[in-house]
Amino acid sequence: MRSDAEVGEISGGFLVWVGVAFLAAACWGLVVVLNKQVLEHVRPIPVNFFVLVVSTVSLVVVAVPLSLLHLWSLGFTMTWTAAGYIAIGSSVTWLIAFTAYYSALRSGRVSVVGPLTCTDPLFTAGFAALIVGTAIVGLTIAGLLVALTGVVLISRWMDDEPEPHAPALEGAAGPRLHASARTVVALSLVTAAGWGFSPVMIQLAERSTHGASTTMMVLGEALGVVLLAPFMLVRRRPLLAASLQAAERRRVIGLLVAAGVLNALFTVMWYVLIDQIGPVLTTLIVATSPIFAILGGIVLLRERLGARLVLGAAITLTGVFLATLPHVH
Description:
329 residues; mainly alpha; 75% helix
């Protein structure tokens, strides 16, 4: 049996990692708000590409020296099996999930896209059951039904509250994007499915190497850059949705860099958290990021939040917590 001191040390360490998970949630909530601002001027695929480039460079600059100087426990361990899992996860994440995410965020409001994409723990639980063999218990099914109810309500109520910050597609004086509620919901759920698949691949990669590694982080981001590069080279439309003045251009570049750096910080915490507290608990806590994103949307984007959308978001988040709670150990 463990002594009281050992139990206290374990509990204290667990609480620290829980705190880090909430910090990651806040970090991602801010990234969402920054991305929304950039998407008012830049198209989704270029935003995806440039944020990922900044994130990859940031990881190399920060994480690699930490490993080389042994300033943290992560090294450069990698196996071909782990690389395969990371490659599969990166392909789904960057080509499918993030493309859908930026498209949804560009045409929908933060307070809608955030709660919908946070259903990724439901997909994580489903993929974990299919791939890893994790059992799905009754409370998970109940949570799924509750979350589905919230999604349906949001999709029904969204059209009644038009997006106050829909970006221009064809120039400042051109037509504005008014995607249907169903389109935004569908794109958000595709995003959640891709994001839910990723932590299962990361967990399988970490199992093959007995823990996270800096190589995994850098490889996952770098593969995204490589996968997206052809789409940038063969693009048929300009990068920008409208021409920018010098001041606006500097602001957009600053937002892209900030989003990329925060994305790199989130990636580091994401990999370490999956290793320390598991993929389900990690996604459960990080699923609170819509709360931070909604607050940021209200403060920075001046989004108006209707009572019905708040109710729909609350029902969705409740379902997510119910569904993932049985998997927390």
